[in-house]
């Protein structure tokens, strides 16, 4: 039997390989002849394994989308039983069953032969089709799809061929009968099995359709639920927005009411503190001289007590000095034959003098303590006087009743008053942040021309300032008109003091603190000088350096700034507003009268040099005690050729050299902002 199977295989193989030579009727005839000697179980088994190997690369269940057992048949049922072999054939080829059922027996053979001849091609196509089937199934297509029939057909072919490939020679009639009988049984079997399988398949497809319909229904339901939810959310959002819109004025009102009550209590507190401090430090009194009423300062009790102590110390010191003189006189009288009783022994004189000297030394120490305390009180007195002035200005301001400007800026308390402006702390109700509102008041008495000139000036300042965005430059947020005579600029709020107030409270800063302020101011200046159109600030002074709540220094007030034109020469641009500015801080070239001065960023370098000197030594380098008018009259700055440094406090030579470079008299030799910004004194490195 084994030999026979091998023969069959050899034959079968040669058939397959010569498929193109075989005509269809010849093949059918050959097959019919072979049918007489029906294949043995060995053949079936062999071909079953051939079939298995053909399909092994594709997972059976995946290929067909059906239960795996659909394809299991061959290995278990093909051992020796022909019927079982037929069963395997049918079970493994459900796709082709319908066709088999329709065709007659010869057609089956014909089909088998045709495909057997084209075995290789058919198998390939079959595999491709199976893959396509798998894809289709993945896409939810039915497995009864006619397209899949061919692929499976090829397998049918193989199996049919297996079943029906006869031995090369069949001899007896008995064997033929058996073959015919088996053929009949096979046909029935095929028909029955085909029907059952189709029904099963139909049923499973129907079940699938039902399941898919259920899925679809659920998906539709979900979609409609989501749509409802989305509509509901949209409606809720709209309601919330409407509510928000309605609540906005209420919320704004609540915020401004809260701010107002905080500001009111701050005002009360400020006034109470002024009253308390006045008792210690002094107050403004009124003096009447005939019809003339003038104001004068009267020191408070603490200052009076200090002055009394100081007076007493001075009196004691003078008394001791007198006693010392007397002692010396007695000593000198001794030599001139004075009364022996009144003459002191030499050692007694020395001891007595030592006592007086020691007392004088202790008086000096007490005096120094009192003087330091008095200086501290004087500083406090200065702060008190400024606060009194601020309160007075606030009380006299027409903006002191918590107005909301331009529908968004809630005015709170007055920060201070400048030449032509009042600066209020305010709250921006739109951006929800504190701002400083600078209210520029035009004097109603001014001519229309002067008013227009002032407004032009302010708009120019605004146009320069609004484009400046830098960490060390105060931001300008907004500008608007309040009435015909007043307009407002809105600035970044700096809650710390300005440098002027800092220096009034502590006139001398440690070099380290002064240097870091200097560096920040230069960073702002470098920004101004790296723009397409450079800007000269022209009014750098302690009052124009502000500090935010973190102590970051910021340059402000661009009222006198100059935009440097593109075509300006190396010497600088013409100074058209000579006479403006604060003279202590301006360089010599700004005072030149013989011709229109040419200026550049070197003006700002000079000003920062003065500022730095003042921070370190507690006084300005030129004309410190002079008024603006006297500086002009006495040409103080024109004469400021060389800077002198006090011996105290001790300041590093690097700092002094830096100041000398900033205060270089000759403009041509003085470094500009970008050059001096490279100075080692301004650079920090980790040690
Ligand atoms: N952005 C700001 N944030 C906080 N306080 C400010 C701000 N701008 C100005 N101030 C304060 O308001 C007060 C008045 O400022 P303003 O600039 O009007 O006065 P000034 O510089 O003394 O006067 P002038 O502008 O006439 O030179 C000052 O005490 C100043 O510190």
UniProtKB/TrEMBL annotation:
**Keywords of this entry:** ATP-binding, Coiled coil, Kinase, Nucleotide-binding, Serine/threonine-protein kinase, Transferase
One Pfam assignment? Pkinase
Q: What ranges does the record give for the region Disordered, renumbered to this chain?
A: 1-26, 39-87, 120-162
Question: Which PROSITE patterns does the protein's record reference?
Answer: PROTEIN_KINASE_ATP, PROTEIN_KINASE_DOM, PROTEIN_KINASE_ST
According to its record, what are the GO cellular component terms? nucleus
Q: Which residues form the Protein kinase domain?
A: 409-682
Q: Name one GO biological process term.
A: intracellular signal transduction
Superkingdom, taxonomy of origin = Eukaryota
Which InterPro entries does the entry mention? Kinase-like_dom_sf, Prot_kinase_dom, Protein_kinase_ATP_BS, Ser/Thr_kinase_AS
Q: Which GO terms describe its molecular function?
A: ATP binding; protein serine/threonine kinase activity
Low complexity compositional bias, start-end? 13-23, 39-60
Show the ranges annotated as biased composition (Gly residues). 142-151
- Summarize where ATP binds, as residue positions: 438
Which residue spans adopt a coiled-coil conformation according to this UniProt entry?
Answer: 195-246, 303-333, 360-394
Stated name of the protein: Protein kinase domain-containing protein
Species name for this entry?
Answer: Acacia crassicarpa
């Amino acid at each position: 039997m084994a030999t026979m199977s091998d023969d069959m295989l050899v034959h079968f193989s040669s058939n397959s390989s010569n498929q193109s030579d075989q005509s269809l009727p010849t093949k059918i005839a050959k097959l019919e002849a072979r049918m007489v000697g029906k294949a043995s179980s060995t053949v079936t088994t062999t071909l079953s394994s051939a079939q298995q190997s053909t399909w092994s690369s594709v997972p059976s269940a995946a290929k067909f989308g059906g239960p795996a057992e659909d394809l299991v048949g061959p290995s278990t049922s093909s051992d020796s039983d022909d019927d079982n072999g037929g069963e395997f054939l049918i079970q493994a080829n459900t796709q082709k069953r319908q066709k088999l059922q329709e065709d007659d027996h010869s057609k089956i053979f014909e089909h088998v032969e045709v495909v057997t001849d084209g075995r290789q091609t058919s198998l390939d196509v079959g595999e491709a089709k199976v893959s396509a089937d798998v894809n289709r199934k993945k896409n939810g297509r039915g497995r009864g799809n006619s397209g899949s029939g061919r692929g499976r057909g090829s397998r049918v072919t193989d199996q049919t061929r297996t079943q029906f490939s006869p031995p090369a020679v069949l001899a007896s009639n008995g064997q033929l009968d058996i073959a015919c009988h088996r053929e009949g049984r096979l046909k029935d079997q095929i028909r029955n099995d085909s029907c059952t399988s189709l029904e099963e398949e139909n049923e499973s497809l129907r079940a699938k359709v039902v399941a898919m319909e259920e899925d679809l229904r659920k998906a539709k339901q979900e979609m409609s639920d989501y749509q409802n939810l989305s509509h509901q959310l949209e409606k809720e959002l709209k309601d919330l927005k409407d509510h928000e819109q309605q609540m906005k004025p209420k919320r704004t009102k609540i915020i401004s009411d809260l701010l107002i009550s905080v500001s009111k209590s701050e005002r009360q507190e400020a006034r109470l503190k002024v009253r308390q401090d006045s008792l210690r430090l002094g107050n403004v009194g009124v003096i009447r001289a005939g019809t003339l009423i003038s104001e004068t300062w009267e020191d408070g009790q603490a200052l009076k007590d200090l002055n009394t102590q100081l007076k007493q110390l001075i009196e004691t010191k003078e008394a001791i000095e007198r006693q010392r003189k007397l002692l010396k006189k007695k000593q000198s009288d001794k030599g001139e034959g004075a009364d022996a009783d009144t003459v002191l022994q030499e050692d007694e004189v020395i001891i007595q003098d030592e006592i007086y000297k020691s007392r004088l030394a202790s008086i000096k120490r007490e005096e120094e303590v009192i003087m330091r305390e008095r200086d501290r009180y004087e500083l406090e007195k200065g702060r008190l006087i400024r606060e009194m002035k601020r309160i007075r200005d606030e009380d006299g301001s027409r903006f002191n009743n918590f107005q909301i400007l331009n529908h968004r800026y809630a005015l709170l308390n007055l920060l201070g008053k400048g030449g032509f402006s009042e600066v209020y702390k305010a709250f921006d109700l739109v951006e929800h942040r504190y701002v400083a509102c600078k209210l520029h008041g035009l004097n109603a008495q001014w001519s229309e021309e002067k008013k227009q000139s002032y407004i032009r000036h302010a708009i120019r300042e605004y146009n320069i300032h609004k484009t400046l965005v830098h960490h060390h430059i105060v931001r300008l947020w907004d500008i608007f008109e309040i009435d015909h005579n007043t307009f407002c600029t809105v600035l970044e709020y700096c809650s710390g003091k300005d440098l002027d107030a800092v220096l009034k409270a502590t006139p001398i800063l440690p070099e380290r603190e002064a240097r870091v302020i200097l560096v920040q101011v230069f960073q702002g200046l470098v920004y101004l000088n790296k723009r397409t159109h450079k800007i000269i600030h022209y009014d750098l002074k302690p009052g124009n350096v502000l500090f935010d709540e973190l102590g970051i220094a910021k340059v402000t007030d661009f009222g006198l700034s100059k935009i440097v034109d593109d075509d300006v020469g190396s010497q600088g641009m013409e100074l058209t507003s000579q006479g403006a500015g604060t003279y202590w801080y301006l360089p010599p070239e700004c005072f030149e009268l013989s011709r229109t001065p040419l200026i550049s960023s070197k003006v700002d370098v000079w000003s920062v040099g003065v500022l730095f000197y003042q921070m370190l030594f507690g006084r300005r380098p030129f004309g410190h005690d002079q008024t603006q008018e006297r500086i002009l009259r006495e040409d103080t700055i024109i004469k400021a050729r060389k800077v002198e440094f006090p011996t105290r406090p001790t300041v590093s030579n690097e700092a002094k050299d830096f100041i000398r470079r900033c205060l270089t008299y000759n403009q041509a030799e003085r470094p500009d902002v970008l050059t001096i910004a490279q100075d080692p004194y301004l650079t920090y490195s980790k040690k």
